[in-house]
Specification:
membrane, AA-Vitamin_Transporters, transmembrane helix, single chain, 14 helices, EmrE-like, globular, Membrane protein, mainly alpha
């Protein structure tokens, strides 16, 4: 296990916070522009392929800094593949889920994945935090669904669709993934974890290609795959920072902070760029997310 990408002078107690903040910023910017590719005619399934390829660059960077010291023992390989397949597999299921149900109901369900992480971390890792931390966790969990739910559209789409069990599957995948990310960090390097995440992401490219409808027009121009690559690189580097945040921080704090902070940054950027005024529920969610982020940063 190495500290190749960390300055040894920084106190370990706050390393998790710097990486968590970096994740929040990167994922927040990514979230604000992630939909551009699909809007310009580049399918989300192919965007997944581009994302998987962008994972190579940060993986090579951190592995080169460690002298290519990859953890190859059976348990490390198992943990790495579990983390990678849960993350990429959840993304694959999401592609199908959004074709069967409304995104404004699917994403609030998925956003509760930190609850799975927190419960597993409490039960199996015996993690604890202060009352300030618990207050921040609670506010983050309350704020998360508010970013996507639209009360004016209601629950009319709840009946007759398969989206709800699919959303629960994605929530479970990403919640369990975060738990294993913390568990794996206790015995293997963060660089190795990310390498296996990159590897499993590449393994699922054929599945994404098989899900693509090539009978429809596809934008192969600069604002297609190339623009998608620039946007998805933010996602990939954010994922790398998340691995290091879990390495140094508690899962019960890192998971809600990054999941609430990212949408907060996305909303602020969207407001500044597009001049869109968020609804009342989203404003409440933004305020709660801001308070939660500040509380969790104090832990």
């Amino acid at each position: 296990m190495t500290d190749a990408v960390i300055s040894p002078g920084k106190p370990a107690s706050k390393r998790w916070l710097w990486f968590a903040v970096a994740t929040v910023v990167l994922w927040g910017v990514w979230g604000a522009f992630a939909g551009i590719s699909a809007q310009r005619g580049f399918p989300e399934t192919l965007t997944y392929c581009v994302w998987a390829l962008t994972m190579i660059l940060p993986a090579v960077f951190v592995m080169a800094r460690t002298g290519w010291a990859l953890d190859r023992d059976p348990r490390s390989i198992l943990y790495g593949l579990i983390i990678g397949l849960l993350g990429a597999g959840g993304q694959m299921v999401l592609f199908y889920a959004v074709t069967t149900g409304p995104a404004y109901l699917i994403f609030p369900v998925i956003s509760l994945s930190p609850l799975v992480t927190i419960l597993m971390s409490l039960a199996f890792l015996k993690e604890r935090t202060t009352w300030v931390g618990w207050l921040g966790v609670a506010l983050a969990l309350i704020a998360l669904p508010m970013f996507d739910f639209s009360p004016e559209q209601g629950f009319a789409s709840l009946q007759g669709g398969s989206w709800f069990p699919l959303a629960l599957i994605i929530m479970a995948c990403w919640g369990v993934q975060a738990y294993f990310m913390k568990l794996a960090n206790n015995r293997m390097s963060a660089e190795s974890i990310f390498f296996y995440m990159m590897l499993t992401g590449l393994m699922l490219i054929p599945v994404a290609i098989g899900m693509t409808d090539f009978s429809k027009p596809i934008n192969w121009g600069f604002d297609g795959p190339y623009l998608a690559a620039g946007i998805q690189l933010l996602n990939a580097i954010g994922a790398l920072c998340l691995v290091f945040a879990f390495r140094y921080g508690k899962a019960i704090v890192v998971s809600p902070l990054t999941n609430a902070g990212g949408p907060l940054v996305t909303a602020v950027i969207s407001l500044a760029v597009a001049g869109v005024i968020p609804g009342q529920l989203k404003i409440i969610g933004l305020i709660l997310a801001f308070i939660a982020s500040a509380l969790l940063a104090l832990v």
